[in-house]
Request: fold
Amino acid sequence: MQYDSLNPTISNATKDVSPTGTQTLLRGLGVVQAVASGARDLKEIARVIGTTRSTTHRLVSCLVEERYLRVLPQVGYLLGPKLIELGFQAREEVPLAMLARPYLDELSALTGDTVHLAIREGDDVLYLHKNPGRNGPEMRSRVGHRMPLARTGIGKALMIDCTQEEWQRLYQISLPVGGKSMVWPQHQEQSWEQFRQRMLDYVAGGYAFDLEDNEPSIRCVAAPVRDASNRIVAGISIASTVPYMPLEKMAELIPLIKQTAARLSAELGAKA
Reply:
């Protein structure tokens, strides 16, 4: 690779002849996008954004000086530390529940069912937001409520990236004494092998179900939310009672919950 400079700087004269205004801003953003997409030298960046080599050099030099880009010998141009700082600041400035609210409201309006947002905290699901549904009786979930991960649909969505060893540990600690549900005495627990097979299906499909695993007559469809590192940071779910949530409807809701989770993930910097 050839570079005009491995440590570009800007003189006052260069700044004076740099493009100005909106065009400069858009070109500078184009440079950042080009580098983010893999352009590593001036020739490739210029080709991507459609500018001359001299104009590209001025833009790139300015971005390096301001730490939006960095340049490494034998590698070329990379995204700079300023973008990392701004990324963390942007993530911290908008709480997840606030960022998710429009998407949760949209799901509520479309389905009429209860919609949840939750995160993993230890071995539990912690509910951050709840939109009560119009269909059926009120559920006992509430903001700040905790439930074992392995017993809820949204918890299983949060577990999708875990190892099978972790699945088994979380499954075992969620088991009630005597093998029957404490909230539903007639409900027989599924075996570890049944649970494992369901989790494998959820990994393949990118969603998770609650088939009355936690509360009698309550079912839900859930999906994981990811951040810029592709790490699962939250889950969203659509839940209702059995009369309003037959298996056919659950299957129909899978694309909707996955699409909504993907849109919220994009807000957190995740790539499609």
Summary: The chain has two domains: 12-89, 94-267. Residues 94-267 form a domain with the Beta-Lactamase fold (CATH 3.30.450.40). DSSP finds ten helices and eight strands in the chain. The CA atoms of residues 71 and 146 lie 47 Å apart.
